[in-house]
Amino acid sequence: MHASCRSMPVSMFFPAADALGSSVASIERQTKLVCRQCPVRTECLRYALVSNQTHGIWGGKTALERRKLAHTIDIAAWVGHHCDA
Questions:
Q1: Is 8 helix (H, G, I), strand (E, B) or coil?
Q2: pLDDT tens-digit profile of 32-73?
Q3: Neighbouring-strand partners of residue 58
Q4: How many helices (H) and strands (E) does the chain have?
Q5: Closest Cα partner for 40 from 58, 56, 64?
Q6: pTM, full prediction
């Protein structure tokens, strides 16, 4: 299986730091649509959580969403339950 984002521009998943709020929100919505249909979405999110990715959209989650998620779950248990390592 291959990630749905393979043929997409990297900038879509890593919006420019100087992008304006409505522009970022639009990019995030488009990116999350790609992620929602991706066959490796869970593995992507797992990678981002385990490797503490602080930027970009991974597994359909923004950096802020991943930080919130990391505070509400036991990452080791979640990773073990959701992914075959």
A1: coil
A2: 999 999 999 999 999 999 899 999 999 999 999 999 988 787
A3: 61
A4: 4, 0
A5: 58
A6: 0.79
CB 15 within 8 A of CB 27: yes
Q: Positive or negative CA dihedral for 72, 65, 82, 45?
A: negative
- The tokens for 26 are 């639009």
- Cβ-contact 63, 54 below 8 angstroms: yes
Mean per-residue pLDDT of the chain? 86
Amino acid at position 56, single letter: G
d(Cα 76, Cα 48) in Å, to the nearest integer?
13
> By C-alpha distance, which of 54, 9, 47, 52 is closest to 30?
9
φ/ψ of 52, rounded to 5, equals: 55, 50
Rounded CA-CA distance 51/44 in Å is 11
